[in-house]
Amino acid sequence: MKLFSPRRFGVVLAVVAALVPAGTTATGAAPRPPSPVREAASTLSVPNVDDVRGNLTLPTTGPDGTSVSWTSSAPAVITPTGEVTRPATGARPARVELTARVSLGRESATRRFTATVVPKPAREPLAGYSFFYFTGEGTSDGEQIYSALSKGNDPLNWTELNHGRPVLKSSLGELGVRDPFILRSPDGDKFYLLATDLRIYAGRGWDAAQRTGSRSIMVWESTDLAHWSRQRSVQVSPPTAGNTWAPEAFWDAERGTYVVYWASKLYAENDPGHTGDTYNRMLYATTRDFVTFSAPKVWNDPGYSVIDSTVLKNQDTYYRFTKDERNNTSSTPCSKFITEEKSTDLLDPHYGFVADCVGKATATSPGLSAGEGPTGFKSNTEDKWYLFIDEFGGRGYVPFESTDLDSGRWTMSAGAHLPASPRHGTVLPVTQAEMDRLSAPRRRSGPTRTAWSRTGRWTRSPAGSRPTRPATVTTAPSPVTSRGPAAR
């Protein structure tokens, strides 16, 4: 008598019965382990794919040894390696289908994403300056982000925003942020805010902060300077780093990527507890989206401690300003002040010397007793550059100016009225529309915020409330299609 149909059940019960211990019941074949290719394809994401305003990160490797290749339905808009050419100002957004092929051995799976590339914004004249800063470690909320607006195109006279209270507070990491740096994208309609993850107030102290401090930077995003994404923490420093201080970024047009740089004390590989002696040097990594970063590399290591680099560019030359962190002695009279260097390559490990002791008071010119945290910018109205230097332990930021970056000569500005207690931060030139948004009363409801999520989608919620996360974990509604042994 025929007891089973192999075609119907897909198993031979006689064989299974012989392998199952007595007292148990065979119910079918063991479940097949999940395919690493399908798993990799299902977790693949492209940040900001619904609102593309710059080059995309299209990963070429995945977990478990998988590789990823890409095709684009419109390579003139988005190349298979993620370079983006946006539609012209006033044009309609471009929709591009990106197809990822995830492979491992003979098996492969595909995943599709629909990217929306928004047109370039119209260029508007600059009408003033915004200022983002912290106020110090002496109060419970000093290590948060404050903001001010200039009075028109005068970078020496300011009005504090939000009644002098923080405009952004950290809810991650050490629950304090210092050294905020704000960057405008090359097309002008995307902003990234970076900050040090550090809270000294009632904290562990400066030595511990450089041995077992954070290896992450804090990141916010915005498209209008007034509404910000959820804060995210991104680990950028290696395990040998004891701290990750004063992150800044600069767009490198030749490489098509942002270069992010910061200061870290690097300890020996055989010193996992970071108990030895070492010094700060400047590191860097590259990113297109401030989500995925390259491995860090050393950028500036003169053999002694340096921190707080910032960069200005004039024509084809980069000018780097860095704090010499050595103890001030008769043999190192320019330590605890700013050194200026220059190069035609942003990532040059050997910048040329321009000047040291920048900002230091002399017998013939007023200046600082010590300086750190420089932030520089070009005047909106004159052929002039400004360099604000933080006189730590003294007046906080003090402005200097120069008409020739190659000269290394900086003169303290007269008649400045800065916000109360500004410490290491950033001055950013802004348009009138941006000034109007920044100066508008902060409301708990009304306009919407745009927020980045880990899946790359953008969601909206009332201003002043917490942005919502997407309901799904997929970047676009696309099935995973498999080929190969696991698909059979």
TrEMBL record:
Compositional bias (Polar residues): 447-458
Record keywords, A-Z: Hydrolase, Signal
Signal peptide residues on this chain, from the entry's feature table: 1-29
Chain intervals with Low complexity compositional bias: 465-488
Region (Disordered): 25-54, 437-488
The Atrophied bacterial Ig domain, residue ranges: 42-119
Pfam families: aBig_2 (PF20578)
GO molecular function annotations of the record: hydrolase activity
Gene3D superfamilies listed in its UniProt record: Glycosyl hydrolase domain, family 43
Protein name, per record: Glycosyl hydrolase family 43
Organism: Amycolatopsis iheyensis
